[in-house]
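Quick one - first record:
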Amino acid sequence: MAPDPLQFVYRYSSPADMEIFAFLASALAYGRVRHIEKSLTDLFERMGASPYEFVVTFDQRKRRIFRTFRHRFTSGQDIADLIAIFQIVFDHYRSIETFFLLDYDPDDRNVVPALSRFCRRLLNLHVTENNGAVSRGLKFLLADPAGGSACKRLNLFLRWMVRNDAVDTGLWTSIEPAKLVVPIDVHMARLCKILRFYDQKSVSLSTAASITERFAQIEPDDPVKYDFALSRIGIVENCDGRLRRQCEKCELSDFCHYGMMCSNVFAKTG
C-alpha cells in the first residue's frame, strides 16, 4: 500500500484509532509523497499507541507535544486545534461517523452538502471554545466545499471510511459508496484530463463532481472504485501525461490519447 498515506491507518486495529488517524492522515495528504510519509511518521510517533486515548485525554501538556511539528504550511498548533475539536466530538458523539451523520441526508445527490455542514459544525465547535478565533491553518484542514474547492483530502477521508474492499476500511456503514465524490489530486486530475473526462484548466468541486459522474456511468453504485488504482499510475509509475515508451504497455492505452499515439509511433519505429 505504500506510499499511500492509508498505510498508516492500518497500523491500528481499533476502529476509533483508525478513524482518528485516517482524518489526520488525509488532512496532511498534500505535497510530495515523501514529505507526507515523513510527517505522518512524525505524527504517529508523537501520538503514541492509541490516537483515541490521546484525543480523549488531550490537555495543555499534550498540546505542547506539537510545538515543533510542521507539514508544509500546517503547523503543530493547527493539528492541536483539530485534536481539541475531536475531543469534543468523541465526548459527545463517540465517533466522527456519528457526528458526520448529524448533517447527512441520504436523499442528497452526493456527500457534498453533508460535508459542507460537517466542516462548518466542526469549526463552530472550535469557535465556541476559543472566543471566535479560527486560524487560517485550521480552515485549510476543514475546507468547506461551499467555497468551490475540490476538497480532495476530505473526499479521500470519506473514501477510506465508506468503501469496503482490500484497500479501503469500510468502517462507516451508514453511507452508500454511490454518494462519494472522487478525490482529485494532481495525478488523478492529469489522468482524467488525458482520458478526456473534463477540459477545464483548473479543478474545482464541480469538476470533481463531473468526473465522478463519468465514473458512475461505468460503476453507478461505486464511482470512486478506481481512484486508488488510477492515482497510483501517476504516483508509482510517474505518468506525467507525456508520450513515452511505457505508454505502449499501459492498460489504459486504448482509451488514452497518448497511449494511442504511442501505439502508432512505436508500430512505425519498432
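second record:
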Amino acid sequence: MRQSGQAAGQAPDWGIGHYESTAEQLLPAARAVVDSAAIRPGEHVLDLGCGTGNAALLAAGHGGEVTGVDPASRLLEVARARAASAGKEVTFLPGEAASLPVSDASVDVILSVFAVIFAPDPGAAAREMSRVLVRGGRIVLSAWIPAGAMFEMNSAAAEAVRQAVGAPPAPPPFAWHDREALSGLLAPYGFRVDIAPHRLAFSAPTARDFLDTESRNHPLAVAGLGVLERLGQAETLRARLLEILENGNEKRNEFQVTSRYMITTARRDG
C-alpha cells in the first residue's frame, strides 16, 4: 500500500514492517530519477527520504558527495550497511523534509523517490529544499499518478482504516504529480518545472501472493492492517483488496499491475 497519503499533519512511520522489500520493487524508479538528474562529478547530492538508500547509492557512483536523509532510524541503519557492503561513501543522517540537517546553499541536487510526496506540509518542504539548494540547483522527484489498481487498492485501505477509527475525512493531498500544482509550490523560490511520465510494473505469481507480501512488509499496510485486526475488520479489507488486484491484473497466468508516475525536474536559475 504505497500510494496512499496520510492524515493531515501526520507522517507515516516507515521504520515498521520491512520496507526493504518495497525498496527493491522501487529500484527501477530510483534509477530513472537518478538518470533524470544528470549528476555531474563533484556535485553534492541530497537523497530526501532516502529509505534504504536506493537513489543515494546510485548517485554515489557519479563521483560527488552524497547525503541521505530519512526520519526512520532503522532504514538509515540498513542504508549504511548497504553502502559499506558496496564500498560507497554516503553520509546518512536523520531528518525530514521540513527540517533538513544540512547547511544553507550547500546542495546541488535534491533527489526524492516517492518520499517528499508524504511530507505533511508541502509548503514547509518546498521552503526547506529551497534553503539548502545552491543557486542553479535542481530538484528531481517522483510522484505517483492517482489512478490504476494500486491507487484504488491503497485508497480503499486508507478509507477502511479511517472509518474503523472514526477519523474525519482527510483533505485532498497535494498533487505532487501535477505540473501546475508544482509550479505554484516552487515558482516563488525561482524554480522552473518540467515533468515527464513513467511507468512501473509490480508483479508476483498471483494477486494473492502480491497482497500477502505487501501485508507482511509494506509499512503502511502493516500499520493499517494492525489497526483493523484489533477491531476484527482485517479480513473484510483483505477480501476487498484482493478483488481490486484481481480485477486490475494485466496478465493471464501470473499477476502484474502497472502504476504510472511522474518525474519532475525543478531547476532554479543561477
